[in-house]
Amino acid sequence: MGTSELKKNRNSRSQQLNPNWAELQRKMKTHGSNPRKSSDSPNLEPFNSVLGKRKDRGDAESDGSQPNFLFPTNDDCSLTDVLAMDCEMVGVGERNKSALGRVTLVNKWGNVVYDEFARPMDRVVDFRTQISGIRPRDLKKAKDFRIVQKKVAEIIKGRILVGHALHNDFKVLLLNHPTKDIRDTSQYQFFVEEGRRKSLRHLASEFLGVSIQKGEHNPVEDARASMMLYLKNCKRWEKIIKNQIKLQKKKRKRKPKKKASQKDTSEVDPITES
């Protein structure tokens, strides 16, 4: 009985030590897996550095569900000669009129160069969160509309601007932009089918193989999708624009000649009283 009790004691001691060894092994495994996590982190650094505080607002890019090619391939946040813009609107006043709630600008690499919530001049009656993704807390510390408007005007001046249905964005921004510098994916002739304009969501799915705007719209994601659509078609698109500009110049040159000829004929054949 004594030997059997000793064996039991030894077994019990070994059983008491086993959990400790298991715990140590678990820690070693988790410690050994840390380098794997760190090896993945460089891929996320450009994204974090680009969006900064915007990532904390719950943008859809952080869920990792979107294709990688919509993410920036570098961390270059410079102002390129081509920019893409997207705005989200809220409803203000008694008529629930659209007003700027957020505006985002990305460069040709897809990196964010400007992204701000804007506090409308009128009282907000509908945040339109289901589409805009804007909540009351977002506008509490938002910048005044006039400040955002001025900054956007400064950034886009002299640059090609890409976007989808940009006339809606310009309307809430109370801004204009030269027609020759606008690249609207809703109006590009190869994106229009039988006179019907397609939504950005449809174009992204058809030409990029990307699913966007599943729920709340993400202006960063939408601006990047517009930019990708433009870059994939920029050579043919720019050729069309050049041809249009040439035709407009020819028409302008012809108009003064017609007016001059009309004046000459009126002077040659004056109306005489009988």
UniProtKB/TrEMBL annotation:
Biological processes annotated in GO: rRNA processing
Protein name: RNA exonuclease 4
Gene Ontology CC: nucleus
Residue ranges, compositional bias (Basic residues): 247-260
Family: Belongs to the REXO4 family.
Keywords: Exonuclease, Hydrolase, Nuclease, Nucleus, rRNA processing
Main localisation: nucleus
CDD domains: REX4_like
Region spans: Disordered: 1-70, 245-274
Pfam families: RNase_T (PF00929)
Domain of life: Eukaryota
Taxonomic source organism: Trapa incisa
Function: Exoribonuclease involved in ribosome biosynthesis. Involved in the processing of ITS1, the internal transcribed spacer localized between the 18S and 5.8S rRNAs.
Compartments, record wording: Nucleus
